[in-house]
Amino acid sequence: MSAPIPSTASATIAEREQAHTSGAYAKRSLVWVRGQGCTVYDEAGRAYLDLTSGQGVALLGHAHPDVAQAVARQAQTLITCAEAFYNDQRAALYERLSALLPPEFGGGRFFLCNSGAEAQEGALKVARLLTGRANIVAAKRGFHGRTLGALGLTWNKDYREPFMGWTPPVRHISYNDLASAEAAIDETVCAVVVEPVQGEGGVYPANPEWLVGLRRLCDERGALLVMDEIQSGLGRCGRWFAYQMADIVPDIITLGKGIAGGLPMGAVIWRAALGTIPAGTHGSTFGGNPLSCAAACAALDALRAADLPAHSARLGAWLLEALRTLKLPTVREVRGLGLIVGLELRDRVTPVLQALQERGVLALPAGKTVLRLLPPLIIQQSELERAVDAIREVLHAVCQ
Ligand SMILES: *Cc1c(COP(=O)(O)O)cnc(C)c1O
């Protein structure tokens, strides 16, 4: 006998979903039914300022007309084209991505997939294939996804420990600590994988000197430097790639989240001089599908046309300063780069998130005590002013 189907007439949307949800997600009591720009709406039509970008995805906000039009047009033209065949939208996307890369990439090689974790898995396989080495170095507090390979890179033991023995062996070094890297990177290491700004781990930007040191160690010892730009890339941190805060060029870049304007896509990008990987060593049924590629072309064009990396640098600096000037006693530190900003609280962040939601502002946690702001890059200063007011009110109320 199958489980009874809840009556959709009486049950709320949340109840209908809750009856079948995996349990993998800590749910918040809000139903999203529509979005426009930086605002999402619930089923009663109530508006919320979205400082989550739907977990970092909506760089262009919601229902961006260029992305919507590209998706609609491509859906009526060709949705499916496996990588065994060539496709016009995929070729166009490669050229757009290539134009963002520094000359050292020689135009770049690309492997397209469907999520951030999958991009991280791909980067590991590419690094092993291209170097013939098997050891991996990643950073403490790092987050790289939850599939088994990416999970090995991810530091948080709550995510990793239930799957001990199934993940690849990874040496975890201390972030922003060159001595730790010096001890871990040797001639057996294929990849050193870091986020230039740690997102989930609590919003910690790298010291540029540390990135320069990692680059030197990788050069000396023949390891590939992999920048996970899944959250930090494509303008989020005030430049196309956050690693550009330092005078370095990585060997491999991974992208995900907002790359296709909200459609699922991940990308592994590596220096052309490293060569290609042998046929059959990797693959993905949906990788490089024309629908996601068309959306990604539209998204990259829109990011460039509005110069959103520069907008993000400008507004991000304003936001950091505005939050620091509040000098809230409940806040230990305000950190960030561009439009990723973290407020390290003295207490747990969950009640703060709830209180902000009640005031119509949606933000994210990063660990137990960090309030993370990850607004769409199209956000205006007036919207951020509203958010700062709400944060001030909530953090005053919470400390009483
Ligand atoms: C979100 C994220 C991932 C994982 O992406 P998914 O699409 O959720 O698999 C990997 N690395 C970083 C830095 C991320 O922020």
Main sheet, how many strands, which sense, barrel? 7 strands, mixed
Helix- and strand-based class?
Answer: alpha/beta
CATH superfamily of the largest domain: Type I PLP-dependent aspartate aminotransferase-like (Major domain)
Proportion in helices: 25-40%
- Corresponding CATH architecture of the largest domain: 3-Layer(aba) Sandwich
Name of the level-1 CATH class of the largest domain:
Alpha Beta
CATH topology of the largest domain: Aspartate Aminotransferase, domain 2
- Give the end-to-end Cα distance, rounded to a whole number of Å: 53 Å
Describe the protein's architecture and organization.
- By secondary structure, this protein is of the alpha/beta class.
- It folds into two domains: 13-63 and 307-398, Aspartate Aminotransferase, domain 1; 66-305, Type I PLP-dependent aspartate aminotransferase-like (Major domain) (Aspartate Aminotransferase, domain 2, 3-Layer(aba) Sandwich).
- It has 13 helices and 17 strands.
- Strand 13 and strand 14 (340-345) form a beta hairpin.
- Helix 3 (65-75) runs antiparallel to helix 10 (290-305) and helix 11 (308-325) runs parallel beside helix 13.
- The model has no long low-confidence stretch (mean pLDDT 96).
- The structure holds pyridoxal-5'-phosphate.
- Pyridoxal-5'-phosphate binds next to helix 5.
